[in-house]
Write a structure and sequence with these properties.
It is built from eight helices and 25 strands. It is an alpha+beta fold and 432 residues long. The chain has three domains: 42 residues, no CATH class; 231 residues, Thrombin, subunit H (Beta Barrel); 95 residues, Pdz3 Domain (Roll), CATH 2.30.42.10. The strands form six sheets. Strands 13, 19, 20, 21, 22, 23 and 24 form a seven-stranded antiparallel sheet that branches. Strands 5-6-7-10-9-8 form a six-stranded antiparallel β-barrel. Strands 14-12-11-15-16-17 form a six-stranded antiparallel sheet.
């Protein structure tokens, strides 16, 4: 019993010692934790230090103003909700002048984009009254009212008299308020035609005059107070990258970019042959408009001035039409200057090693036409024309353009190279 009692006592002592040891460890740990917390906070509150130097008050204000300015500018530029914006310290800025075009694409058809633009709406409304559509006159329009017959026949004849968009031969532009128009297409003066305006009113074509230089038609109708097309004032206004607009026969609105202001389409070597008696170059846009639904469509810049017209094989720039327009308004007849020379522009000839005597100019291709002024003057195949009067032929000065600007009967001085020798010829311009 005594042994057992001692054993229990030893066991109890061990447990008590173990509890006391654990208690001492816990107190030490608590003391250490308290010391660590004290050391952690003490440096922050034991003393106050002077803060390090940073941005001044005015620097912060200036930065805020700069970022506010940039943010407002970016929002207004990209959203473009208004034509004018007000900026701090600068005042009001007219976005319409800085960003003249804001397009919203609504239809894309056959790689040609139809667009609607808030700022182009007014321009479209201004241009449309300047255009008409040309139709072949229906037989029903040639009948008198007495031929209509009964009420049933009259009702049935209504649809017979209707002209549809698919029946349009060409678009026409209004040249004068009293009814001179210009259109494309192969119109026959012996056939009856009518034109319709934007209000669907019909007018009978009284007269057709063909321009032998461009192949365009000048039509005369009896009316007055028409809205007239305004044209560009110089060839230099037809520039690459210019944004243009036009309408098809259904008066759908299109925008495009002028890709080449003067371009000769060459599919074979013979296409390089030009003539002094007609123009070969045309305007090229980014998309193809040489289609029936665009025949006679006028090309306009965003200033509302016309640059040219879509013909059957090319877009004819206005500077090629200007002479005919002047003639039809002054004399009601059109002639073209005639010289009888076919030629090649040296600038177009890649790899022509035989032309070492001249880098620029026009080489006569084949003998001049029989009976022409050029033949009578003694010009012949292979002669290189380098100068007309005081103008040197180059990329900007086209031989055909220079000849067609002359007046019938006017004399010109032509400088040519023949076998390396310079010669001078005097020719008198005739008309055809």
């Amino acid at each position: 019993m005594v042994w057992q009692t001692k054993k229990l006592r030893v066991k109890n002592i061990g447990e008590k010692q173990e509890i006391e040891a654990t208690s001492r460890k816990s107190e030490k740990k608590e003391k250490d934790d308290t010391q660590e917390i004290k050391e952690f906070y003490e440096p922050a509150f034991s003393r106050l230090e002077k803060p390090t130097a940073g941005l001044s008050f005015w620097a912060i204000i200036i930065l805020c103003l700069i970022f506010s300015f940039l943010g407002g500018l970016i929002i207004n530029v990209f959203i473009l909700r208004q034509e004018n914006i007000k900026l701090p310290f600068i005042g009001e800025i007219n976005l319409k002048k800085i960003f003249p075009i804001r397009e919203i694409t609504i239809v894309t058809e056959k790689n040609i984009t139809i667009t609607a633009d808030l700022r182009l709406t007014d321009l479209s409304n201004k241009i449309q009254p300047q255009l008409m559509n040309v139709f072949l006159m229906k037989e029903s329009d040639l009948k008198s009212d007495s031929d209509l017959g009964s009420e049933e026949t009259e009702t049935a004849s209504v649809l017979e008299q209707v002209y549809l968009d698919k029946n349009i031969i060409s678009q026409a532009g209004i040249l004068t308020a009293d009814g001179w128009l210009i259109s494309a297409g192969n119109l026959n003066p012996e056939v009856n035609y009518v034109v319709s305006n934007w209000g669907n009113k019909l007018f009978k074509v009284k007269e057709i005059v063909k321009d032998p230089l461009t192949g365009l038609n000048f039509l005369k109708i009896e009316t007055k107070n028409l809205s007239v097309i305004n044209f560009i004032s110089s060839k230099e206004e037809i520039i690459q990258g210019k944004e243009v607009i036009l309408f098809d026969h259904a008066m759908k609105f299109f925008t495009d970019i002028l890709s080449r202001p003067s371009y000769l389409k060459v599919n074979k070597k013979e296409d390089l042959i030009r003539s002094t008696d007609y123009f070969s170059e045309g305007i090229i846009l980014e998309h193809d408009y040489l289609k029936p639904e665009f025949l006679g469509s006028f090309i306009f810049g965003l200033d509302g001035l016309s640059l040219g017209v879509v013909a059957e094989k090319k877009i004819i720039p206005y500077w090629q039409i200007e002479r005919a327009v002047t003639a039809i308004l002054e004399k009601r007849e059109i002639t073209r200057n005639y010289l009888g020379i076919n030629y090649l522009r040296i600038e177009d000839l890649v790899g022509a090693q035989s032309l070492k005597n001249a880098e620029k100019g026009a080489i006569i291709y084949g003998d001049p036409e029989k009976g022409s002024i050029a033949e009578g003057a003694g010009l012949r195949d292979g002669d290189i024309i380098v100068k007309i009067d005081s103008t040197t032929l180059d990329e900007k000065n086209n031989l055909t353009d220079l000849i067609q600007k002359k007046k019938p009967g006017e004399e010109i001085k032509m400088i040519i190279l023949r076998e390396g020798e310079e010669r001078e010829y005097i020719l008198k311009i005739s008309n055809f």
